[in-house]
């Protein structure tokens, strides 16, 4: 099996998400981490690079150096995929430069600081023909994929209602740490706090699972903790296509909550429910029939669920496996293209630029709605 | 122990809620059912009265007859409390007549057809000095009472967020039966369908548990099933006093859902969660401490929870017991007054006219908001 | 509807189970409590009788007086069913006297102090032709009845394995109260403590649900708390007919446990699981198919489950309702016989003398096994 | 960071556990897989080695070749740790040869085919001074480690009761596949089927969490599926030191069950419960206090739980992470020794030869007990 050579921008000392990306990349043995610019501090970059056992000459002090230097390496040695795990304000430029220099890109969400940047990035991506993957982790869970397939297959009948929620409690107080600092700083996070950090995940999950696009929304956006500069709480009424309605709740001040993203979708014939706290279970509920419990690893599952599962049923797979599924499918896509073979449809099922743009449109619309006295705002063109 | 003589208006053949009220009345042996006008059909009224073993001369063909005839009986024989379990359009007149003729009243929710009627009823009640009890069942659960006490005691700190939801699926199709018919008929149900039937329960639960009043709201109200004449689905953004925000979701088209009313409240220090499907559990969640599971019957519970519990912990109490708690507390209140003793504070903890008026204000505001392009509407004066 | 005239022996001040029996009797309006001998203290008997609103002349100072006096009343006034809710050592004599004087009997479990007494009681019951009902509460739950029907209908295929457990924690310390005192006193409780009090429930549940009889067993019986005179903990390997094996665990020293009786049964094609803590759910598990969640009130349930349910799905029914189902079915049986009509098969589904004898055989065998060095002991002839 | 060079014996095409070991080894970046003898078929070994991207000259056709060839390589290139993932009958010889040639060993459980082999292996291990790690996965879960710490810290008081269970359903029928075949073949699996495959896990978990040693047992061992050559079901009464009693249930014929290993331990003051299906939760139950829910990632957890966690609370970690914790701690131990530094106590917390010997003593005693008419058998000397 061929492996892809991976580089990383960001993910230095104290980064939570950088470590997650690296585990995800290692999980299925599709990537070799060969280089990195882990921090804007050269020293810290070297520290992390050393800890990861990289060759010293491929630990870079900046993303520009990384891209330039790698570009000059022989093709068989040069990095192939660059993973960008920096705060939001450092997404667009490195992604642009990476794509334009011939590298595939993995980006943490939200894709950019603004919708305008996201739309630009799409042009660049299309022009360069390189691939871009966006780590909306929750779509990586096998039972989320199963949920989507059940709905696509029409099992629930026409969809009528979508509830999605993402409660966290870790910003209930004026936390000061590396994770909290940039997320509550508009210059690094953009115009949205909670709505950007976790609201976009909830939004993406709702569109992915239901197969429907949000068309307009009405938002209540709050900053609950004193002196915080961005929203830390919000609830949104949604209107999808086909007059389907929905509710999105995302908060970071639900004291005592961990990270329990949850989705429920109801159609004419039945409903379904999934939540991360019980990630290996998908509940299907039926009119006048007993509910059913679908479980990761079940022999009765769709090819999409099975493709994204590593163990037999009863061996719980979690967040890291879901994250790794995104890396895995992206690698399978790239490798298939390299081999001039047809990628499996299951491999193509990962979030990318389209989902990134939808997320930015959501952020800009939801924040505008929070400030508006008008009830419904159309989702920004995306 | 003295028992109260109970009469019933409504609750004839095929009535679900009439049977529930009678079980609730029997549970704690505080009432003797002595008379009834169970149906507008004299024949059906007699049928039900006979089944219940009533004396034939106290089975009446109409509520007017019941009230007039009972009024003429000697005081020691005459009915004392009249339970009205008819559809909404038949609440106000019988309640008014009962109060004005000297009887205490138990009413099913919503209290009347309109806010105006509810406000009138308050005047009547205050003038007559008789008591009125409204069966908002969910506040009868011991763990709901515990939730309220925890918040009143400040355990969660200042409240910040309230989520309440009430999903049902039984109106997912164009059901035709006695239960569905009147609930979807504006002449019997009033201006609201789901919002009146279950939205008011959710609204009452949110105000009761949080101890906070809703001040304005923004609603998305839908009629999902074709040709239905009233709403069957809705979601509402709420603003309580003290800038506390909330979300209320109530639907009767969530196919596969039963009746799982659920509330979550978050404060500065922690949060709590209760749902009817696991009615004997109250979860308390804390910042940086393990969550706690409070259970009906626990020795550590408040006097309000203990007062409303009949069995030791581990013996599940359910919907009928919650319903019976409302009957029980109402009886204890009346009996204490009869005995010229001070009622226990726990006995006074049942819903009444104030909650009824709040519910009607909610209904009228939420339906107006559903039709409005204005984002926030103030709750109607109540 | 005719009601049965009910009398009670035991159930005076401080009795937990007496109050439960009375709620159960009231729930469905099939009984009128007309007399009682609530305590061996005449004073306490009068106190309880007064609280219950009985006529003074039908409050008796002893069970003998009750039976004799009621016998002498005119038939249309005389008590018809006598409920005996005393500690175990006061089961046999009152039951015998009641049956021999023409009264139907409801008895708390275990049926008697010894297997010999239970066998005698069977003779008496058969000779007198009166009916006897034993309150093995857990078989009264609708979902337990559904479990039994699923197995009887062959849905699981041939049964292979039965696990039943009954963990409590309330005797973890040397508790001193009315409930604990007699249960740990061999002169009142008999040769078994936990095995008699809750082990018999677990045993009854296992035989009822599986439809299989235990043939031999091997027990580990312990007295964990110092100075306790009877067992407070035990685990038992079971062999049913057809070489089906099982495990029964019952303990009263599982600190922190409430009362969570649970059963799991596995057959060739699938398994099922029910536990009291989630009493309205029955889980059916299948080979290579999603598990199913059956819920009280579901339209798809057997007539046995539906017959024993009072509310639509989603309105939790609990312990008191399960208890009341036993009273209800017993009443329906007696009333059908009185009316010379055929009782419904669902009404006949309540525990009686046969289950009582099985329980006593279990107690005597399990205690003997606990003391034996022989591995397997045959269940005593019953 | 230095990485360890890893080799693998077994784990060729179709091996479930080989793939799991490799993911576990990759997860934390402590190992580089450098060589393997993946199958007794040279062709298959090459196939797997190629898929894994190994250098062809380090893909071997037999474990003997692997050990001999690697031994001859320069020390800085030579494999350091050999992971043996073959069926049970191929554990002892490769492990012996690996240890004697200077390699550390990771072994799948049960450690050997017989207790005698296990005791021999211990001598060899002690003589060579190399380390041995046994992959009893379930002890790798952070919440299992927390459970052990809570008990060691005396939070539950003196332990009184241990329940452990391991229900599976996948051998409910006469399955024929690579996984089932060797597990039901005495020449490959040894004298035990289910008791060796999963009973040893349950036994290990019970001793690990409780901190107590089993001293004697009484077993009911069954072969339920016709023509199966080894046990597929069993239940065991346990006696630990200090007169603590317990029950172990392990079955592979519980149709519909996945893999839900579960443990409950009760002491004087409280109890605890953990199950793999909800692996990130540890429930602590208390006398007269609300139960507590400890969660992976909680800031209040012991250093042992925290050391074995990769993500913040609310990001579920699963089976692969638990497995990886064993690899991680073993690596940290070896690397500390290589660096002549003191290993952290948390790194030393992995199963090894002692646990392996206990497991073999359990297997031999439990199978003997299954055939015995004597009630209690002492655990074989270990």
TrEMBL record, chains A, B, C, D:
<feature type="domain" description="Gfo/Idh/MocA-like oxidoreductase N-terminal">
    <location>
        <begin position="5"/>
        <end position="133"/>
    </location>
</feature>
<dbReference type="Pfam" id="PF22725">
    <property type="entry name" value="GFO_IDH_MocA_C3"/>
</dbReference>
<dbReference type="GO" id="GO:0000166">
    <property type="term" value="F:nucleotide binding"/>
</dbReference>
<dbReference type="InterPro" id="IPR055170">
    <property type="entry name" value="GFO_IDH_MocA-like_dom"/>
</dbReference>
<dbReference type="InterPro" id="IPR051317">
    <property type="entry name" value="Gfo/Idh/MocA_oxidoreduct"/>
</dbReference>
<dbReference type="InterPro" id="IPR036291">
    <property type="entry name" value="NAD(P)-bd_dom_sf"/>
</dbReference>
<dbReference type="InterPro" id="IPR000683">
    <property type="entry name" value="Gfo/Idh/MocA-like_OxRdtase_N"/>
</dbReference>
<dbReference type="Pfam" id="PF01408">
    <property type="entry name" value="GFO_IDH_MocA"/>
</dbReference>
<protein>
    <submittedName>
        <fullName>Gfo/Idh/MocA family oxidoreductase</fullName>
    </submittedName>
</protein>
<feature type="domain" description="GFO/IDH/MocA-like oxidoreductase">
    <location>
        <begin position="145"/>
        <end position="273"/>
    </location>
</feature>
């Amino acid at each position: 099996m061929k492996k892809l050579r991976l580089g990383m921008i960001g993910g230095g000392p104290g980064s939570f998400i950088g470590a997650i990306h690296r585990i995800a990349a290692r999980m299925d043995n599709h990537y070799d981490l060969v280089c990195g610019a882990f921090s804007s501090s050269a020293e810290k970059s070297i520290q992390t690079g050393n800890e990861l056992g990289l060759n010293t000459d491929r630990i870079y002090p900046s993303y520009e150096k990384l891209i330039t230097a790698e570009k000059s390496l022989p093709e068989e040695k040069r990095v192939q995929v660059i993973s960008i795990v920096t705060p939001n304000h450092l997404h667009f430029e490195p992604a642009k430069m990476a794509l334009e220099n011939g590298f595939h890109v993995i980006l943490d969400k939200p894709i950019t600081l603004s919708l305008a940047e996201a739309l630009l990035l799409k042009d660049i991506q299309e022009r360069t023909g390189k691939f871009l993957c966006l780590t909306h982790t929750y779509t990586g869970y096998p039972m989320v994929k199963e949920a989507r397939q059940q709905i696509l297959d029409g099992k629930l009948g026409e969809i009528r209602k979508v509830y999605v929620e993402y409660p966290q409690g870790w910003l209930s107080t004026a936390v000061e740490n590396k994770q909290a600092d940039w997320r509550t700083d508009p210059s690094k996070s953009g115009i949205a706090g909670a709505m950007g950090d976790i609201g976009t995940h909830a939004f993406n999950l709702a569109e992915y699972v239901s197969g429907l696009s949000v068309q307009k929304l009405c938002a209540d956006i709050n900053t609950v903790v004193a002196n915080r500069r961005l929203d830390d709480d919000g609830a949104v009424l949604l209107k999808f296509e086909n007059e389907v309605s929905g509710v999105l709740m995302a908060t970071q001040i639900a004291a005592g909550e961990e990270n329990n993203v949850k989705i429920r979708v109801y159609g004419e014939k039945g409903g379904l429910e999934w939540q991360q706290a019980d990630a290996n279970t998908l509940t299907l509920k039926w009119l006048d029939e007993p509910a059913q419990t679908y479980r990761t690893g079940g022999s009765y599952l769709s090819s999409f669920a099975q493709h994204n599962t590593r163990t037999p049923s009863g061996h719980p797979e979690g967040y890291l496996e879901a994250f790794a599924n995104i890396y895995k499918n992206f690698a399978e896509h790239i490798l298939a293209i390299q081999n001039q073979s047809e990628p499996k449809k299951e491999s193509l099922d990962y979030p990318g630029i389209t989902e990134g743009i939808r997320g930015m449109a959501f952020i800009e619309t939801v924040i505008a709605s929070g400030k508006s006295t008008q009830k419904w705002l159309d989702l920004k063109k995306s």
